[in-house]
Design brief:
Layout lengths: L1 H68 L1 H9 L4 H14 L3 E6 L17 H14 L19 E10 L3 E10 L1 H10 L6 E5 L2 E8 L2 E2 L12 H6 L2 E4 L5 E5 L3 H41 L1
Antiparallel strand pairs: 1-3, 2-3, 4-5, 4-8, 5-6, 7-8
Length: about 290
């Protein structure tokens, strides 16, 4: 009887030691996972933010190059805003130059649009942005307009503007609107499982501008505003220069919980197998000792 008790005590001690080792190892693996996820999130956010910054920088540069290239046509349109042929000619050239082109307009010397696209896509938000940029560019010719999403119904977009100074009439603004797919493609290619890359407004951090699916009007699985809990869970973010955008990584809590549950499930299975094996050993040993005593 004493030998059976000794075997049982040794077996239970072995199970206890195994459980302690597995618990420590599982906790360490969980911490390593969180640390690794944090590094990945930082790399993804920085990479996506840089790509967006580069794309917008190129957009500003190419719009100004386009304006320099077709300054004669744009100047003619400013002088004769009812010339539909010239207006269409510029539009066709913009469509050929930019695959994500939406619409364009030009302003008079007071910053007021004098031409509207045939689809009437230059809304109140665009006009307000034009006025603001016009005031800024009169003070600093090299200024860039602050990019943000304009919520025109069915045509959410962003705008790029370039100043045009004409002798005798002062400063005018050449204004081009673009679809968001170039930005959403960046979010799509930089996002990995366990992450949600979102562009939110710097001036209104709870308002989502877009995610990999598109602008906030296309968010099918969530509200267009972040909850207080979601805002508090954001640990990695980066502001995009010359925009009203902040790129954030919203952690996928369900993904993290699922992974950690998997670690603990794995540890529990190992402990269960070891315990069953030792119980079987105790049973076999007990049978052997009983036969030997007879």
């Amino acid at each position: 009887m004493l030998k059976q008790l000794e075997i049982f005590i040794v077996a239970m001690m072995f199970v206890l030691i195994t459980a302690i080792i597995l618990i420590i190892y599982t906790v360490e693996r969980g911490q390593e996972f969180k640390s690794h996820q944090s590094m990945i999130q930082k790399a993804a956010v920085h990479g996506a933010a840089y790509a967006i910054k580069l794309q917008l920088s190129n957009k500003h540069r190419h719009v100004r190059l386009f304006l320099n290239e077709y300054e004669r046509l744009v100047t003619h349109l400013i002088n004769f805003p009812t010339d539909d042929k010239t207006a269409l000619d510029i539009k066709v050239r913009l469509q050929q130059r930019f695959s994500d082109f939406l619409t364009y307009t030009v302003t008079n010397q007071r910053g007021v649009p004098i031409l509207f696209d045939f689809d009437d896509l230059v809304g109140k938000a665009c006009q307000h942005d034009l006025k603001t940029f016009f005031e800024v560019v009169n003070e600093k010719k090299s200024a860039l307009n602050k990019v943000f999403v304009h919520p025109q119904p069915y045509h959410y977009h962003y705008d790029i503007m370039a100043p045009l100074s004409l002798k005798g009439t002062g400063t005018h603004i050449f204004f081009v609107s673009f679809y968001l797919r170039g930005i959403t493609d960046i979010l799509k290619t930089h996002e990995i499982p366990g992450q949600n890359l979102l562009l939110v407004k710097q001036s209104d951090l709870s308002l989502i501008e877009m995610d990999k699916q598109g602008s906030r009007d296309k968010l099918a699985t969530r509200e267009p505003r972040l909850s207080k809990a979601e805002l508090q869970s954001v640990r990695v973010y980066e502001n995009i220069p010359d925009t009203d955008w902040r790129l954030i990584n919203l952690p996928d809590i369900a993904f993290e919980k699922k992974y950690l549950r998997g670690l603990w499930k794995e540890a529990a299975i190992i402990i269960s197998v070891v315990t069953l094996a030792l119980l079987l050993l105790i049973f076999v040993s007990a049978q052997y000792l009983v036969r030997k005593s007879h």
